[in-house]
Amino acid sequence: MSRERRSDAVANRDRIVEAARAELSRSNGAVDDLKLHLVAKAAGVGQGTLYRHFPTREHLLAEVYRHELTELVDAVAPLLAEHPPLRALTGWLDRLVEYARVKRGVMAAIEASAWQDLYAGQHHRLDEALELLLDRGKAAGEVREEVDAADVILLLGALSRIPGPEWDKRAPTVVTVIVDGLRPSRARPS
Fold first, then answer.
1. Where along the sequence do coiled-coil regions lie (predicted)?
2. DSSP H helical ranges for the chain
């Protein structure tokens, strides 16, 4: 019986996180629009169940962030298995744009100290995933040799400056410019 309750608790937790992710995605990461009673309703659980798993909005948002990050990191291997390295990197960056949409709202809502702990404990995984994509691209001759993950992350910082209403229009363009800049320079005739 206790195993059944534990599996129910895990399923409830997962549904709550998924409902919060869906709501944040629908609202372009607008955390202020995230109504916890509506998340509980969408997840098919009572508010008490939601608060047992996530005592505060920040706890729920931190779990959404961790979940998004895990999915983003886990996407690297399948993308590399299905596509040439630069196409895999482009597909991953497209996913990163969606991740950044949710992360922007989450970052604003989580207290600064809690965010630093969350970031420090998780972000190395993102760096490692990006480095793997870049290394495969370099090995295939599709990515400049001198580029590393820190360079791309600096370029991706431009995403944080895109105002919410312009996100859908400008974020894909920023990714395209970044990918074009990662390509090796063509040899020039002398």
1. none
2. 2-26, 36-43, 47-53, 57-74, 76-82, 85-109, 112-139, 149-156, 167-182
pLDDT digits 0-9 by tens, 91-102: 999 988 877 766
Cα–Cα separations (whole angstroms), residue 175 to 41, 87, 182: 36, 12, 11
What secondary structure letter does DSSP report for 75? T
Tokens of residue 79, six digits: 């993308």
Task: Give residue for tokens 């309750």.
Answer: 5
List pLDDT tens digits, range 108-148: 555 544 555 555 666 788 889 999 999 999 999 999 999 99
Residue 190 lies in a domain: no
- pLDDT at residue 133, as a whole number: 97
pTM of the complete model: 0.76
Number of C-beta neighbours around residue 10 at 10 A: 11
Alpha-carbon distance of 4 to 129, in angstroms, equals 36
Q: Which residue range forms the structural domain that includes residue 178?
A: 56-185
Number of structural domains the chain divides into: 2
